[in-house]
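Lay summary. Proteins are chains of building blocks that fold into shapes, and those shapes determine what they do. In this project we predict the shape from the chain. Here is one chain we studied, written as its sequence of building blocks.
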Amino acid sequence: MQQWLDYQLGVHLQGIDLGLARVGEVWQRLGAPRPAPLVVTVAGTNGKGSTVAFLEAMLAAGGYRTGAYTSPHILAYNERVRVDRTDVDDAPLIAAFARIDAARGDIPLTYFEFGTLAALLVFADAALDVAILEVGLGGRLDAVNLIDADVAIVTTIALDHQDWLGSDRDSIGREKAGVARAGRPLVVAEADPPDGLLAAAAVNGARVIRAGVDYSIGTQADGWHWADDSVRLTLPAPALPAACQPANAAAAIAALRALGARLALPPYAFARGVAEARVRARLQRTRVGDGELVIDVAHNPQAAGVLAEWLAREPAAETVAVFGALTDKDVAGMLQPLRDRVAEWHLVDLSTESERGRDLLSLDTDFGAALGPLRRSCWGDVASALDTLAPRLRAGTRVVAFGSFYIAAAALRWLQNVALR
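And here is the predicted shape, written in a compact code that computers can read:
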């Protein structure tokens, strides 16, 4: 597996090359297999992974066989391709990679395009009822958009990947609306979506289903409820703790209900799915002695704001942060929401983890510009920072590791090593 992944990194000179022409030609050479009779595509800035998890859990509770393709992975590549909520083994992925490499000839494919085609092949061979495809970047030109979705979801629209998607919410929304198809439902999960998203959906001819317009959610004593003009569902609190998770679950419900008679789900399937959905490194809390380590993949200002809201609702005696970021991220926008929530910062160099990783000098400079002389230390890696913090963590300090999937992965590996000591 690792040999194949290393090989894919060298096939294309560009790590990101948006567009469907190259990957579409290879897909046609492979026979253009549809991954499942029904396909749900999930786009958006934040909340995609959680929404996919809600879809998987709800469908599983209703007795349907699912495949889910997500990215990036955290600890192992196989996390990207799941069948019946279980990571696939190496063998089917390697077989798919070999088929793709034979079919592509001299067509260069990116690492993500290889992975997307592999997921489609694995799903096509798995006799699924429903395939759930998470967009990697944008929507209109993302490799996932090869497949015509029966229903699509756009979770949130915020500033991220501006070099590729545009500098404002309207531009980004237009790109993400590209997953919609004429005459088919598009669930818009934000109550206040940008006009660009709605305009592009109208041009595409999609049947838009809007949060706060076509369905609503509300809190109640024993959880929360979801309602449209024909049904009201009473639902438990999500196991995923962020305040945004009911909105993600609500979008999943709206999408599944939009499929109507093609996908019959009883009310209990929605409730069980809300209660059972899990996603690694989304406000993942682990007790360590008398303290806790919180691991979160928050890697843009909107996600950092959600983290800050959660910290305000769940105060601790002392909170310190382990933080690193990629070079294309708005570091100041990620730090500002947490100014009053974190007492001490531990900055981590990610330049050795990725060519896009921000080095310590750049990170420390941006930190100083954003937060001034707040207490901070600098580290070459996450493990060194956490090893130093371990005595305080065990004594009752809350440590929050966030800023990048690389930070989350390193913190999870550190936890595994601590457990083995």
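What the prediction tells us: The mean pLDDT is 95.
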